Automatic annotation (TrEMBL):
The gene is Wdr27. This is WDR27 protein. WD repeats lie at residues 368-401. Keywords: WD repeat. It holds the Pfam family WD40. It comes from Helopsaltes ochotensis. Signal peptide: none annotated.
Amino acid sequence: VWDYSTSQLIYQSGIITAFPLLSLLIDEENKQIITGCAEGQLWIFSLIRDHNYRCVTHIDLKKEQEKFCNKVWKSGKEIGEGQNKLCKTDNIGPEGSVETSLPILLIEHCDFFVCFPKEENIYSSQNTSYFWIGTSTGLLIINLANFELEAFLSYRDYRDLSIRIARSCALTRKAANGKILCLITSMFEDMIAVLEVNLAALVRTQHRENSDFLPSGNEKSLSVIASITSYIFHFLSNHYFRVIGQYKLNYFPTGVKNTVKDKPLVFHNQIKSSGYTAAPRMTIFSPNTNLRRKEVPKWKTRCKCKNKEYPLESYPPIKYVKEISVTCKPTPIFCVQYSGDGELLACGQADKTVLIFNSNLTDVHNVFSGHDGAVNSVGWSHDRKWLVSASEDRTLRVWSVCNKKPALILGKEKFHKTVRFAQFYFMDTFILLCCGAEFHLLNFHLDTTKDDLKRYKQRSVCKLVQKFPMTSTMEITSLSAVNEFYSYIVLVAGSNRALEVFDLNAGCSTAVIQEAHVRSVHQICQNKGSSFSTQQPEAYNLFLTTAAGDGIKLWDLRTLR
């Protein structure tokens, strides 16, 4: 500490850490100074002379972060045994990734109470100071009254954000409309990202003490659309976080890269150069100046084409238009599914392949092969970039739409029976699949990059969250869940001709309809929403079931009739 008027050193502390101090902030209001180091440690010193500039407290952010997360999960358990299953899943990453440090890159004042209405007294003292802590992996809010975390935001929880580890960050000190802007730079790439954080929504989401955000537990009626008061919806959605922009940086202005000139490979005078810098003795290649512009496939420009509007007053499309043969020899097609934008159609076939057609069935976009049995089901991801397939060979594969090699393979050792159905779930957060008399909820991480030395090794990983058995059945014959928006409801049908409703927010079965059809239900069809239209919320509670020889039945989830 220096006296600015006399330029004299007043106080100098001893070595407080073996690691470099990366950040510092003077808290003038409370007359203290806050420092952060490369290993996630915070030290707070008093700036009052009578206190001899002593260290007020030392905070281990790693431990506080773990304590905060455990507190959130514990609060979830208090609602009721078995509830909040979805939010217990760990953030899954590439195998072998270990976080060894938590560098504190930034300490900044937090405009906390400005973001809350005056009548919203969710905290005891309005005189408490709050600070943003920017680390390499996320943002934290710390309460200087009790030195505890109030909220935590991790970069890796958001798939839209390309930066997972930050090298530096900056925050706007004043909030605008309850939101602050954050600028982060990548540790390993020449990239920056601008983020917008809704402070009030972030704090409300993670504070279980506010009863307005707890599931009441008294509502017995079922609904496909997740309740806005549900904790899991708030926690897994990014309604308090938005990526405004991500930009690649060019550190070399025009002309700088050319300042280093090429030199001969051999520099010794007594050794004759190979002559590669000399002028060529003859013309080996003649440039082709008559280049024609490469034609872009039609499917790559489909987003520029305007879809034909279907007249609302017309009847459903029942007119037979055309028929195409997908293979040279007769081959059964076991499953078909359109992508959410209606541009691509996936077909799973008995010949162990998956075909991707464009919407008008005039061109094969891609062919996926690798299964060792008939393909039972195919399912698109919400972002249309991935396709999941299940086969009679007791394997599950996730394919990238622009790559013919699978990004994830779950082999026979994972499943004791054939995988009949698989789909993405909860806005691509999970994968649902049914195997025998139970269905599995899987958490996953997809990585298509390859290690040059271990190209055979799969970098994508998958983790079982929980298994849900169906009541009194030998095998699940059909499964359905919504992926286009947040929903906890999963519908399953079994070989016992029953229909069962699971609420994954509660983590259990909530209703069973016996004798739904005279035979086993082989198809459940839900209203899963559309990217092009909006409907009344009640419309999503209707679903269809069908069984061989027993027609089609329309059900209402609210009445189970």
